[in-house]
């Protein structure tokens, strides 16, 4: 799951790799496709642009590393919150759109991402909703207090 501004596909340019992920939109989405030949022409004309593709690759590595680290959190509540923050774009910093941090995910999907049962996630989410830290919606979880949720994870 990704937030607005997410780019993917740099592996084809950097390593000649074929696509190994699939994207599916869950909300209204604008998608841009830039042919590999155009990207190659761009970096040939402006070699400094290679740096940006490298930075994109680092960002994806950070996302993968963060996901793995979240799964090492032993406390069920803290692990669930960490995953929820990550998929809402709020794990380590405020979301790109602070007025609307949301995880467009079902509770069952969140459970799978956090390596928890659906019942365990449901219990955590109910408690967070009672504390007014989140709001449960249909196939979405609205983050009302990302800062407070980050404090729970980091001080746990």
Tell me the helix content. Answer: 40-55%
How many H/I helical runs? 7
Helix/strand/pairing category:
mainly alpha
Major sheet description:
3 strands, antiparallel
- Number of DSSP-assigned strands: 3
How far is the N terminus from the C terminus? Answer: 25 Å
Largest sheet strand order: 1-3-2
Strand content: 5-15%
N to C succession of SSEs? HHHHEHHEEH
The general outline is: elongated
Low-confidence runs of at least 5 consecutive residues:
none
Radius of gyration: 18 Å
The average pLDDT score comes to 89
Task: Give a brief outline of the structure.
With 156 residues, the protein is mainly α. Helices cover 51% and strands 6% of the residues.
Describe this protein's structure.
The protein is mainly α. Helix content is 51%, strand content 6%. The chain contains 7 helices and 3 strands, in the order H-H-H-H-E-H-H-E-E-H. A hairpin with a 2-residue loop joins strand 2 and strand 3. The longest helix is centred in the middle third of the chain and has 22 residues. The protein is elongated, with a radius of gyration of 18 Å.
Give the helix/strand layout.
Layout: H1 10-15, H2 36-45, H3 50-71, H4 76-87, E1 102-103, H5 107-113, H6 118-130, E2 134-137, E3 140-143, H7 146-155
Antiparallel strand pairs: 1-3, 2-3
Task: From the structure above, extract its key features.
3-stranded antiparallel β-sheet; 51% helix; 7 helices; elongated; single chain; mainly alpha; 156 residues
């Amino acid at each position: 799951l990704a937030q607005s501004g997410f780019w993917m596909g740099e592996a084809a340019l950097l390593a000649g790799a074929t696509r190994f992920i699939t994207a599916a939109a869950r909300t209204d989405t604008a998608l841009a496709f830039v042919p590999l030949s155009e990207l190659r022409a761009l970096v040939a004309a402006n070699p400094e642009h290679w740096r940006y593709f490298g930075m994109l690759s680092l960002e994806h590595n950070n996302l993968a590393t963060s996901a793995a680290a979240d799964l090492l959190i032993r406390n069920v509540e803290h692990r669930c919150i960490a995953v929820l923050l990550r998929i809402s774009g709020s794990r380590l910093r405020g979301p790109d759109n602070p007025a609307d941090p949301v995880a467009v995910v079902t509770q069952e999907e969140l459970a799978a991402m956090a390596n928890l049962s659906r019942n365990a996630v449901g219990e955590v989410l109910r408690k967070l909703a009672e504390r007014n830290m989140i709001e449960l919606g249909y196939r979405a979880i609205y983050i009302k207090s990302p800062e407070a949720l980050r404090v729970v994870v980091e001080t746990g």
